[in-house]
């Protein structure tokens, strides 16, 4: 497959994605593009004396992998995004001295940071940060996951929820949604272990719901018992408290999260 054929396939892929084309048709384009990026387009054996043809191939291969990465997020295939990002690593770190910078680079690196946060891979998150120069930490795409990570560490979960309205690009939204759902699950699990009962009003606030019908459905899904305006968790632990104040709820859950993080 020559350069022009590959470029034509990529152009068709972009048009289909931008027009929300048929998924099966798009999938048919993906196979040849993945092969092109990994096999047909030439890679250098070193970063010195690289021919113009190889440099041209590198830029096209990088663009293919970047667009596949973004499309993977669009269709919520996070594992596919992770694979594509790992294939992009040499383009962002090894070949950066020989090819022009990509306009999508920091957005995709930031999305990978969001993926790591959403998957609770904190140590990997910080390892990835070490690869980013200090000058680029204020880039809007990098700064966003940094702010999210700080909010999670502080237990400021409402900030994570509100961040969904201030994402630097639409692709960040899916990871914000995953994070919020994960935080709700963690809070619910901690609540069940820490408290015997909890008022509906406080539970709705601490679980970050702003929609009562969704909150009611969540209660049903977790099989919590509701008596009057109180949720009963069925916790028999003598250290669990009965109908705590909202301040105590936040303190208890924050300490529980900190303990999990340290362990």
From TrEMBL:
Domain PCI: 79-248
Nucleotide-binding recorded as keyword: no
Keyword Magnesium: no
Pfam families tied to this protein: CSN8_PSD8_EIF3K
InterPro entries membership: 26S_Psome_Rpn12, CSN8_PSD8_EIF3K, PCI_dom
One Gene Ontology cellular component annotation held by this UniProt entry: proteasome regulatory particle, lid subcomplex
Family: Belongs to the proteasome subunit S14 family.
Name of the molecule in the record: PCI domain-containing protein
Record organism: Dictyostelium purpureum
Higher taxonomy: Eukaryota, Amoebozoa, Evosea, Eumycetozoa, Dictyostelia
């Amino acid at each position: 497959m020559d350069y022009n054929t590959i470029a034509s396939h990529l152009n068709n892929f972009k048009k289909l994605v931008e027009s929300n084309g048929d998924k099966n048709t798009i999938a048919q384009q993906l196979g040849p593009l993945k092969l092109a990026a990994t096999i047909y387009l030439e890679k250098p054996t070193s970063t010195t004396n690289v021919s113009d043809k190889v440099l041209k191939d590198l830029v096209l291969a990088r663009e293919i992998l970047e667009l596949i990465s973004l499309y993977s997020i669009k269709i919520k295939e996070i594992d596919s995004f992770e694979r594509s990002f790992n294939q992009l690593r040499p383009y962002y770190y090894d070949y950066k001295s020989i090819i022009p910078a990509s306009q999508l680079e920091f957005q995709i690196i930031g999305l990978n940071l969001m993926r790591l946060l959403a998957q609770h891979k904190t140590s990997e998150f910080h390892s990835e940060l070490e690869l980013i120069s200090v000058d680029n930490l204020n880039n809007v795409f990098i700064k966003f996951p940094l702010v999210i990570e700080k909010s999670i560490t502080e237990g400021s979960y409402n900030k994570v929820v509100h961040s969904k309205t201030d994402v630097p690009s639409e692709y960040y939204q899916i990871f914000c949604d995953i994070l919020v759902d994960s935080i709700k699950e963690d809070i619910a699990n901690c609540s069940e272990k820490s408290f015997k009962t909890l008022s509906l009003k406080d539970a709705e606030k601490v679980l970050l719901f702003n929609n009562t019908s969704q909150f009611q459905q969540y209660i049903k899904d977790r099989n919590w018992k509701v008596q009057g305006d109180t949720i009963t968790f069925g916790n028999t632990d003598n250290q669990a408290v009965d109908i705590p104040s909202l301040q105590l709820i936040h303190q208890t859950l924050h300490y529980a999260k900190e303990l999990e993080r340290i362990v």
